[in-house]
């Protein structure tokens, strides 16, 4: 039996102070449901409004801080995350159920993100995004284009990546001179608090950064509705993202949405089959498929379809599912009881619609009571729901394609458009796929789930809305452009 640390008691962080709330909630270890990871304060609408007002007042000064001041703060946060990646990774694994190596790697990624945006703060210039001179069409006129911070930014983040996704939003917002109100998902209050604890020691002025924990219905909605919140960045489900968009559009707030996908991995007949199976396993099943970039549709050319399925089935048999802190575990538990029930319901739906069951999809028992299930594989038709709807769990389906053209058509036959991958040794097909896959990101001979922290991230169609996240492109969302004219 693996014993976790004692439970934590975590509070809101508003205007530079730790605050309690009238009600509390708990987060539970999905690897061992007898273990409470944290008891957390649940913010009400009044507390969210206090945080927003604090951010509004702090913005005036922070938006005019020097690039060096912002860079020092972000570098300090990144350094502590990297120094503490092991203990913070342990916390993440306990609260979410990611395997310990994955969890430690995620915390390290969060540290690297803050370090990257420390550099961006310096490269961006005092205005938060740099400036450029544009030659005027009129003699004697100077034209300057500058970027300025947007203002108060509300950040609503998901439970599946509780350090790296918040880091990409918080670091970018602060680097460009914005103030922040951060609401993490209710499943991961301890991770949200731990990140905030580090930020609270980074010498930010009071009110520049605020943490509010609680439900999306109350705390999240208060953030979305507030006229004082100038911009909203949301990562989560398509249904919730649509509600955020409608509410924000009604008051003309700037919006950035990342809402998941139904990503395809295309396997052509000329592919290295071992590599293709490895890409499928990593992309579809690692982190229990609880990634927006998971490749839940495996589109395989007919000539290698049966061999690919047989090899993938054998590989799935070897995967070890268990407690996230055990050594040698490939996949931990799913995040909670509700998601386990939803995943098992999808297994029933797949069977009822006539998809052919190949492997897995059963609830599992382990030494500790947790939300364990075996990774599932089906052979499906394009019209089956498991081939069309986002499941966000360890379930993938294989679709047979007659040739490359049909595979590409199947890849694009989805309302989502986050990412897509192809396994092939044909440069012609690889280059054509990169150009014609209707997605925000493409991968060639790589798993779909795996991106660099300094490159733009985002999708098309139902997967994303607004400017891209991460890297230098983050300035498009976290700054606004001003054009100045002057007679010389």
* End-to-end separation: 75 Å
| % residues in beta strands | 15-25%
- What does the radius of gyration come to? 23 Å
Mean pLDDT reading: 95
Report the top-level CATH class of the largest domain: Alpha Beta
User: What multimeric state do the chains show?
Assistant: single chain
- Unreliable sequence segments: none
Q: How would a crystallographer describe the biggest sheet?
A: 7 strands, mixed
Q: What structural category do the secondary elements indicate? A: alpha/beta
CATH architecture assignment of the largest domain: 3-Layer(aba) Sandwich
Q: How would you name the CATH homologous superfamily of the largest domain?
A: Aldehyde Dehydrogenase, Chain A, domain 1
Helix count, DSSP H or I runs of 4 or more residues: 14
Strand order of the largest sheet: 15-18-19-14-13-21-22
As for the CATH topology of the largest domain, it is Aldehyde Dehydrogenase, Chain A, domain 1
The counted number of beta strands is: 25
Helix content: 25-40%
Shape: globular
Question: Could you say how many structural domains there are in total?
Answer: 2
């Amino acid at each position: 039996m693996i014993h976790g640390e004692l439970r934590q008691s975590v509070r809101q962080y508003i205007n530079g102070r730790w605050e309690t709330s009238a009600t509390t909630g708990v987060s539970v270890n999905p690897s061992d449901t007898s273990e409470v990871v944290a008891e957390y304060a649940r913010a009400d609408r009044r507390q969210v409004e206090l945080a927003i007002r604090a951010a509004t007042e702090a913005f005036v000064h922070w938006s005019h801080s020097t690039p060096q001041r912002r860079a020092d703060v972000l570098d300090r946060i990144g350094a502590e995350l990297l120094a503490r990646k092991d203990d913070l990774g342990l916390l993440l694994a306990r609260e979410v159920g990611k395997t310990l190596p994955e969890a430690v790697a995620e915390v390290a990624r969060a540290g690297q993100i803050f370090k990257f945006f420390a550099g961006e703060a310096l490269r961006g210039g005092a205005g938060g995004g740099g400036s450029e001179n544009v030659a005027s069409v009129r003699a004697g006129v100077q034209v300057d284009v500058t970027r300025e911070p947007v203002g108060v930014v509300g950040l609503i983040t998901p439970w599946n990546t509780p350090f790296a996704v918040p880091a990409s939003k918080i670091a970018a917002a602060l680097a460009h001179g914005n103030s922040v109100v951060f609401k993490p998902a209710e499943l991961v209050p301890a991770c949200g608090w731990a990140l905030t604890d580090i930020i609270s020691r980074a010498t930010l002025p009071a009110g520049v950064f605020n943490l509010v924990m609680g439900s999306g219905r109350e705390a999240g909605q208060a953030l979305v509705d507030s006229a004082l919140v100038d911009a909203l960045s949301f990562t989560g489900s398509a249904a919730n993202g649509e509600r955020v968009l409608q509410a924000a559009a009604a008051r003309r707030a700037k919006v950035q949405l990342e809402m998941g996908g139904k990503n395809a991995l295309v396997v052509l007949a000329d592919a290295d089959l071992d590599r293709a199976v490895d890409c499928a396993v990593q992309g579809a099943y690692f982190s229990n498929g609880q990634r927006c970039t998971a490749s839940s549709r495996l589109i395989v050319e007919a000539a290698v379809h049966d061999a690919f399925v047989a090899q993938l089935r054998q590989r799935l048999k070897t995967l070890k599912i268990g407690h996230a802190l055990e050594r040698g575990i490939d996949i931990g538990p799913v995040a909670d009881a509700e998601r386990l029930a939803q995943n098992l319901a999808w297994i029933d739906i797949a069977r009822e619609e006539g998809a052919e069951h190949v492997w897995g999809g059963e609830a599992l028992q382990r030494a500790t009571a947790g939300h364990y299930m075996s990774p599932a594989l089906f052979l499906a038709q394009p019209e089956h729901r498991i081939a069309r709807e986002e499941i966000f769990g360890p379930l993938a389906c294989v679709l047979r394609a007659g040739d490359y053209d049909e595979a590409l058509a199947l890849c694009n036959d989805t309302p989502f458009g986050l990412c897509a991958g192809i396994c092939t040794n044909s440069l012609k097909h690889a280059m054509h796929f990169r150009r014609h896959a209707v997605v925000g990101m493409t991968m060639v001979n790589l798993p779909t789930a795996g991106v660099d922290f300094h490159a733009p991230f985002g999708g098309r169609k139902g997967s994303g809305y607004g400017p891209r996240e991460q890297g230098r492109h983050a300035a498009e969302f976290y700054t606004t452009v001003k054009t100045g004219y002057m007679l010389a």
